[in-house]
Amino acid sequence: MSGLGVNQDLAPSVANSANLSTSNVMEKHSKQKLWQATACLVCAVVLWIQLNGFGVSEFSGGRLTGKLFTMAGVGCLLFLVALLSTILFPRVAAAIALMATLLCLPFYLYILMPGPYRRIFKGEYSVPLQRPFVWDNWAVVGVLSLLIAASLSLHNLWKERAHS
Q1: Taking Cα atoms as reference points, which of 37, 46, 146, 48 lies closest to residue 85?
Q2: What residues contact residue 43 under an 8 Å CB cut-off, 6+ apart?
Q3: What is the mean pLDDT of residues 75-104?
């Protein structure tokens, strides 16, 4: 017994449990950062593949499609910025990833649903509408990756806010 009434045998176990809980929290944070960085990388790669396929066509120069193409290109760059900033600034990276998601989603939706877009944005289109809804594997993967990135980013933003 020490003068404070604390058992000396318990002091090391209390210190060890504090170290274990701190290491568990750090491990959990690093896993969340890794998941967020991975989601940003997947979104950027899938988007790059999709943009590369449309970049040589007149899609990139259209009145509506050109703006969608530009927004998606900026979104791809933002995903790369979010990827690089995830380690040091996870909340900032999560916010950047959310912005990138919002910029990229209209591009994918246009690829999957050209009919509704043409009804909303009337005008002359150089290519006739074949079907109102189109199945494109890369676009579906892109939308799913955006949903995962957005949910991870929102989780990281809310989690960090609760711990602040």
Answers
A1: 37
A2: 79, 97, 100, 101, 104, 142, 145, 146, 149
A3: 95
pLDDT of residue 113: 92
Give the DSSP per-residue string, 79-113. HHHHHHHTTT-HHHHHHHHHHHHHHHHHHHHHHH-
Which tens digits make up the pLDDT trace of 48-83?
A: 998 888 766 666 677 778 889 899 999 999 999 999
Tokens 């690089």 locate to: 84
Residue 86 tokens, joined: 């995830």
Q: Where do we find the tokens 């806010």? A: 161
Cβ burial, residue 39 (10 Å; 0-12/13-18/19+): buried
Is the torsion defined by CA of 44, 47, 49, 55 positive or negative?
negative
Q: Can you tell me which residue has the tokens 């892109």?
A: 142
